[in-house]
Amino acid sequence: MSPRRITVGAARELPCTLVVCRGCCCGNRRKHPGTDHAGQVDRLRAAAAEHGFRVRTTDCLGPCDQANVIVVTPSAAGRRAGGRATWIGFAMDEDCTQDLVRWAAAGGPGVAEPPVTLALQFVRAPRGTRTRSRR
Ligand code: FES
Known about the structure:
By secondary structure, this protein is an alpha+beta fold. It has helices at residues 37-51, 76-80, 94-106, 116-119, and strands at residues 17-21, 54-58, 70-73, 86-88, 122-123.
């Protein structure tokens, strides 16, 4: 008999969440001067408020050579449908930000297919890494 997972309370309704790395390299204006890092987070938060997904920031997730890193975590429904956290690397331009908004607004992993151009930026999650939010 396989174990059965039961989700109760708020976890049942958790929306898709964008975990935005803002550690030593991601969001660092000196290392990546061509990007409006604060503006990117503001834009994601505004879209989250409009479309019902969440945005959190976190300390360094590990793959600094692929900054800016953003992890798209599935909603509860997406996880039940088989969606898993998806790591996006080099998330610095407007097109990528727009693709992230589009995917999260559509439901994210397990619910909606990612934009094709965003899928080109999928990166492998470091082994043993878990996302931690700080804001
Ligand atoms: S600062 Fe983002 S992966 Fe290290």
